[in-house]
Amino acid sequence: MAKLFAPKVFLIVGGIFWLFLLFFHLYIPINETSTFSIIFMSLLGLFLFSFYKYFDLIYDDIGQKNIFFSIYKLFVNSLKITVLILFILFFEIFEISSRVFSSEFFQIFIYNFTITTGFIFLIMSFVVFKRLIFFESSSVMRSIFMFFQIGVLLIFICDLLYNFFPSDNYQYLLAGVFMIGGVLFFNQKWIAYMHFDQKWKTILIFLFLLSFIVLIYLIISLEQNHYAFHFDVKSSLLFILLMAFNFTYLSVSILISTFNLPTSPVFDKIQNESYLARKVQENLIPTKLPNSKKIKISSYYMPHFALGGDYFDYIELNEHKFLVSIADVSGKGIPAALLMSNVQASLRTMTRQTEDIKKIVEELNFQINLRGLSERFVSMFLCIYDLKNKTLQYINCGHPHPLLFFDNKVEELSEGSTVLGMFEKLPQLNYKKISNISNFKLFCYTDGITEAKNNVDDYYGSSRLKNLFASKIQTSQVFLSDVIEDLNNFKGKKITDDDITLLLTIVNNE
Q: Strand 295-302's sheet: what is its strand order?
């Protein structure tokens, strides 16, 4: 359902239900029957659902790169709500004498505004904590959270049923749901990925949020004592559950963050070393690519937070020939990045000695095996184009099949052998030569894009990519941007867990 509507739609719908709640407070008289309470609770439920969907859409999934940004975003939005709440508290404490402020209309408006604003804060915090709980969580933990959300819905239903069937037994269900939530409180893996300065700032932010939860409860209590309303929010099981969940998660996070502060310098040192390794790896990738009428090469490189092994290159062999390559090392981290740097060095060394693409690949395989890293393999695609003879020869070593558009058709380039580094001698090593090819478009990519998943864990897949290439490549002037846009539309807020590299070579050699 969320995919069918923009966040603003849910925001507008939530605002409409807020107006209904205000109208209900102002113009519907208090009645001892349960009918009016049911109507009020139903409107409140629709209001909360709308804002839950709104925040669920505007707060992206939290990955290693945006942990503190997401927490800071929650802090800023909470600060805005705090200003509004303190504005209300100002009138309550000083009891400003005015016909307007002391009127029944204003009192009802203030109470309604306090309840809904407090619930908005609780729902917003709940969504952010959900994202933190889902950070690198297992499928079991995600399932537990889904059960917890079902429990929250049941608690809301209990609030409705209480109007017809009053019972203290609902409190036992509340305790059971909270115990399920208790398992979630200790999934705090995100804390280990924060720097020292981010940790202590997060502790201060969470202390502020804790204080704000207390402030909301005190103000609602103050308002409840001043006026008789249809709905006693303090006795709502849903309100109690949201308050308790947010308060407990904040408290546990503060404690764990505080005890993890001494480990931050060690972790920061590791992060700095990884950062330097990342910079070394990025320097292996060419920053200047041909951009002329005859040859135009464009690229897109989106590294994952962890060190990866994606690599592409453009090498001029002589005035008539050039080589294009793309590769991906299995695994991640510093070992993968170091092996890729060796591959780059070996490739550039070999291209100075020979233009035989088969010999180049055989030597690369030998060098990788020489490192003795039997658990590391390299998928690689290489091609050499001869501008003078108008020939394209290539070898694909276990790499996702590049797509070639020429002569008004699309061809997958799959000829070659298996991945480099698996065997001392590559089995069935072949290369393919395409003659009389003057105008073509060659699209290469790594498996980071085809293995990207959406929210239901479907893969983006090579078929989707091939269909997009076939439909767009003739007319699009920004094909790589089209690919990224299509990928983002597919995966939504799902975070990719691998590097993504795209490489487009366009040759007009009439």
A: 295-302, 500-508, 439-445, 403-406, 409-412
Q: For 439, which DSSP code?
A: E
Half-sphere exposure of 52 (CA within 13 A, CB side): 17
Contact yes or no for 135/190 (Cβ under 8 A)? yes
Q: How far is CA 121 from the centre of its chain?
A: 22
d(CA 326, CA 379): 8
> Could you tell me the CA-to-CA distances from 330 to 222, 299, 337, 496, 497 in Å, in that order?
61, 21, 10, 16, 13
Of 461, 456, 464, the residue nearest 482 (C-alpha): 464
Number of H helices, E strands in the chain: 14, 11
d(CA 200, CA 254): 9
Rg, Å, the chain Cα set:
30
Provide the CB-side half-sphere exposure for 491 (13 A, CA).
Answer: 21
Above 90 in pLDDT, residue 375? no
Task: Name the β-bridge partners of 410.
Answer: 405
Q: Is residue 1 very low, low, confident or very high in pLDDT (cuts 50, 70, 90)?
A: very low
Report which of 86, 237, 118, 224 is spatially closest to residue 167, judged by C-alpha positions: 237
pLDDT at 334: 66
Exposed, middle or buried: residue 14 (CB in 10 Å: 0-12, 13-18, 19+)? Answer: buried
pTM here is 0.62
Dump pLDDT digits (tens) for 335-372: 777 778 788 888 988 998 999 999 999 999 988 887 65
**Angle at the Cα of 275 (from 273 to 278), degrees rounded to 5?**
110
> Could you report the per-residue pLDDT of 97-155, keeping only the tens digit for each?
444 455 566 667 777 787 888 889 999 999 999 999 988 787 888 889 999 999 999 99
Per residue in 170-183, pLDDT tens? Answer: 888 888 888 888 88
Give me 141's structure tokens.
């933990």
CB 321 within 8 A of CB 384: yes
Where residue 412 falls among pLDDT bands split at 50, 70, 90?
A: very high
pLDDT tens, residue by residue, 310-325: 889 999 998 899 999 9
Q: To 10 degrees, the CA torsion angle through 368, 369, 372, 374?
A: 100
Residue (of 155, 148, 113) closest to 240 by Cα position: 155
Going by C-beta distance under 8 Å and a sequence separation of 6 or more, which residues neighbour residue 308? 281, 329, 332, 336, 337, 448, 498, 499
Adjacent-strand bridge partners of 386: 321, 391
Calculate the CA 5 to chain-centre distance: 19
Contacts of 27 (CB under 8 A, 6+ apart): none
Which of 84, 150, 93, 91 is CA-nearest to residue 116? 84
Is residue 66 scored above 70 in pLDDT? yes
Q: Which helix (H) or strand (E) holds 212?
A: helix 196-226
